[in-house]
Amino acid sequence: MVPEGNMMDILEMQREDLLKRLNNLSEEQANYRYGPEKWSIKEVIGHLADTERYMAYRLFCIARGEKANLPGHNEEDFVKEAMFDTYSFRTLLEDYTSVRNATLQLLKNLRDDVWTNWGNANGFPVTVRALAFIVAGHELHHMKILTERYFQNEDFPV
Fold it and tell me: What is the rounded average pLDDT for all residues in the chain?
């Protein structure tokens, strides 16, 4: 799903697009779920920030030469434990922005040669470059879901 181009530009454009598309949502809209067991929009945004934190940590470790297997995580448990619906939507957008800015700063400061460093995350071999693409692709995936299953749903609050 990630287009060709400079990874920094892609991640910056994603940040701007997400904020432009979500900045004016009301709390009612941000609490919307398209199904009984589905995440609210708040939970999706919290999940994006948490997952990016996790991927950036892995990316950082592998860029610095870590050879140990980096652990996985259970996204359902993380979202449940975080209780994102108790946060204001503004706070979640600020958190997402902070995380994305930190990821961009980390990537900006990487030496060119470490982008191809190999490591192991959750039992799978992965490169620094691949992790950056996973961050971008993960957000694209969830923005597509938000568009198709939330915003286009006839029950979405206006």
Answer: 97
